[in-house]
Amino acid sequence: MRPFSYIVPRTLSEASIAAKKPGALLKAAGIDVVDRMKERKHDATELVSLLPLKDRLATIASDGLGVRIGALATLAQIADSKDLANAAFAALRESAGIAATPQVRNRATAAGNVLQLARCWYLRSSDLQCLHGRDGTSCLAMVGDNRYHSVLGYLDCVRVHPSNLAPALLALGCDYSTELAGKTTRRPLRDLFPTEPKAEADEHTLLPGEILTAFHVPPQPMGARSAYRESREKLSFDWATTAAAARVVIEGGVIKEASLVLGAVAPVPLDRPDAAKMLVGEKPSDELFVRAAQRAFVDARPLSHNGYKPQVGMAVVREVLHAVTR
Amino acid sequence: MTKDLHDGGAFSRRSFLKGASAAAVGSAALHANADAHQDGPKSYAQGAHAIALTVNGKEHRLQVETRTTLLDALRDTLDLTGAKKGCDRGACGGCTVHVDGLPVNACLMLALDAQATQITTVEGIGRPGHDHPLVLEFARCDAMQCGVCTPGMVMSSLHCLQTNANPDRASVQRAISGNICRCGTYGRICEAVAGAAKRMQGEKR
Asked: What CATH number did the domain enclosing B137 receive?
């Protein structure tokens, strides 16, 4: 790591002002940031630590109208949270509980997981210049080794969104809160991700100095359940090759509401409303889930090395739908 | 030259590294404390700073740079070389230490972030003349070959036993799933943890 100065804010507005300066980088636990700085992918001159604000930002609490997950709550906290014990929140516990390793989950935060830099080996290399962040002139993965890259929803950069937690949060219809210049804003989580995930755009829509402070999980009706499943190459310390989070509300054996979000197959966590709609009004069955899974990947455009992804992804969707209706 | 190498450790790789890092710190301006500005947040400028870390129940005053990881502070400054630097990216678990009772990767934690926490390393888990049951069982089961992963394995296993006095094999496997053993001694490590659980229950009786 190159030398940097380290800022200890006392308030969110101090953190916000410090983070706006050119060369400044916000960090929570620093799992991804320290990694990137060691790789010289980022040479921040100032690191603004949010850990001093942990007392305010790391709690998970039911507020009667749902559950508020502080931005600095750790993945281990989410996986074991009593406030998220209900079957409706299972996708959150499951996605947080299988990310990385026990050691990483004990420090990695909810916001850090959602906002980590994409794991593309070309864009994370300090030796290569690619289109991402306007460093280079082309997407190296588009024509290179793209076995872990996008099959859906990509434009000029085929990175995938690496977060486990994001598909689960989206499937549950969460909001997120931010603070910028003393102003708190709450928006639906889909607004955190670009609608056009171009190479030169950030992977999130936060403004300079804007700090993600919490995720808000809405209250769930009776019969609501959720689940998360993913495929990966190793049982531990791996990122998903495909992932799916589902939420359903079941009444009298019939699916009344459904949502389905894919992870690790597109530059953003990808909502699949058309596939989810096929489930509504139906009784759970394998035949139904197979059709929904096909729908979820109907417009897949595999690259040269990731033709397996739609096949495996459909199996994962089928599996998550079985899990959520079991 | 041969004499030097066999001269009771008069000059070792470790003492060379220590000397080099002391020189590096000495050449940078030492900031006694972080600067506190009335009109802005506290900040630690680039360079060396005096901080305190509580390791194995004892407070240590030491100098670190802003970019020093907890792992480097433990190994290079405090001479606690139990935690190992394998991948230095949080992937191997060789650097596992407990921070406030939870296993974490010391290589991904800045030393500045470890201030005001309780740090436990593998050196701190027994008492003099009384090895920890995990250490005894790792030895009895021969649960290692090269031994590089062992301190991290012990720290992950310790947390497993602290949260579950009688863990089944699946729980042990989950607990050590962030630690890589390139020699493949996982089976014996699981046996050692089971043995330690029995030993610890016996000690309580």
From this structure: 1.10.150.120
Please identify, among B73, B107, B124, the residue that sits at the C-terminal boundary of a domain. Answer: B124
* Positive or negative: CA dihedral B117, B121, B127, B130: positive
A-B contacts (CB, under 8 Å): 104
A237 touches chain B (CB under 8 A): yes
Confirm if A248 and A209 have CB atoms less than 8 A apart: no
Say whether residue A8 is in contact with chain B using an 8 A CB cutoff.
yes
Per-domain boundaries in chain A: 56-326
CATH number of A56-326: 3.30.465.10
Task: Tell me which residue range forms the domain holding B89.
Answer: 2-26+46-124
pLDDT of res. B26: 44
Cβ atoms of A257 and A278 within 8 Å: the answer is no
* Predicted-complex ipTM score: 0.95
Cβ-based contacts of B89 with chain A (< 8 Å): 35, 38
Residues B112-151: pLDDT tens digits?
999 999 999 999 999 888 999 999 999 999 999 999 999 9
Note whether B100 and B146 are same-domain residues: no
User: Is B55 found in the same domain as B145?
Assistant: no
CATH no. for residue B20?
3.10.20.30
E strands present in A181-320: 183-188, 211-217, 224-231, 242-251, 254-263, 270-271
Structure tokens at A311: 């096949």
User: What is the DSSP pairing of strand A270-271 with strand A254-263?
Assistant: antiparallel
Query: Is the CA virtual torsion A229, A178, A194, A257 positive or negative?
Result: positive
